[in-house]
Design a protein that fits this description.
It is built from eight helices and two strands; from the N terminus they run βααβαααααα. The protein is mainly α. The protein folds into two domains: 1-87, no CATH class; 88-234, Glycosyltransferase (Alpha/alpha barrel). It has a two-stranded antiparallel ribbon. The protein is extended, with a radius of gyration of 27 Å.
Length: 293
């Protein structure tokens, strides 16, 4: 997190990594989601404050369109994030939707977060579930989806289903769509010698000849999303959670390392003796090699 583009997280952490100059919706969406979930679990308002700040930044920078609730991919810091890549991916919508659901649940049915959640879901269903079947509009139609992109359908299925636990009023709108989409996903898993490999395109009704880990993960995610009715609602620290947190952890530099002890005169003397021995041994070896030559 830095001040470029008025704040926000970069896509990469090491400056040498490709993408370090890029700030995007998924990096900030994960941060927002984490803040919302920790706020609900712990009741600590510091986490919800950061979630709110991240939401506000997304709107201010233009990654989240406040008119139609489209979530764009990101932008480069070299132009102060003004040239936005407006590609839309389902996992961006899904991670922000799930975070909004946690905020809604944490704030006991907040009207503000209810409205935000509804708008995210309405845009998500319209954009990523045409005819009720999962679809990646930014790459699927033209066949340019990369290895990571072909795994996004599973994420939106799983996160949308979890969202209905936190905001049950959304279940009648969302769960039937997930069911229709899952049926289409299963129908096309007819590839390979055994006739059970899954492809990426679910809306064709047949295996597309392209399989891999992402494609299989998608279908597993879709099928498991329909089991949400048998799953327990995520717990909090007051409702059965056993994890004990420490909000001050990591506040001291290198707190995981042993403190350094002061160097004494004896340490210095010992180091000097060792240095003399090493230099003497090196000189002896060089002399011996010279005589031998």
């Amino acid at each position: 997190h830095d001040d470029t583009c008025g704040g926000g997280l970069r896509w990469q952490i090491p400056p040498t990594n490709p993408g370090y100059s890029y700030k995007n919706s998924i990096a900030n969406g994960c941060f927002f989601n984490l803040g919302a979930r920790l706020a609900r679990y712990t009741g600590n308002t510091t986490y919800s404050d950061w979630a709110e700040k991240t939401w506000d930044w997304m709107i201010s920078v233009g990654f989240l369109n406040k008119e139609n609730y489209a979530i764009y991919d990101g932008a480069d810091v070299s132009n102060n994030c003004t040239q936005i890549n407006k590609a839309e991916f389902s996992y961006n919508n899904a991670v922000w939707t799930l975070g909004a659901a946690y905020m809604y649940n944490h704030q006991t049915g907040s009207d503000t977060w209810k409205s935000r959640l509804e708008k995210l879901v309405d845009h998500g269903l319209e954009t990523f579930f045409p005819d009720g079947i999962a679809y990646e509009p930014s790459c699927e139609g033209v066949g340019t989806c990369t290895t990571d992109m072909v795994s996004f359908k599973g994420y939106i299925h799983r996160w949308y289903s979890t969202m209905t636990q936190l905001a049950p009023f959304m279940a009648p709108k969302v769960l039937p769509v997930l069911k229709t989409s899952t049926e289409a996903a299963i129908k096309q898993c007819t590839g390979g010698a055994l006739g059970r490999q899954c492809g990426f395109k679910w809306n064709t009704g047949k295996y597309d000849g392209r399989t891999g880990a992402g494609q299989e993960m998608n279908v597993v995610g879709a099928v498991s999303s329909l089991l949400i009715g048998d799953a327990a609602v995520p717990v909090t620290g007051d409702s059965g959670g056993t994890s004990k947190g420490n909000p001050n952890a990591g506040s001291k530099p290198n707190s995981f390392q042993r403190p350094e002890t002061p160097v004494t005169a004896g340490d210095k003397a010992g180091a000097g003796i060792v240095t003399i021995i090493i230099i003497g041994s090196l000189c002896t070896a060089l002399t011996w090699m010279s005589i031998g030559a």
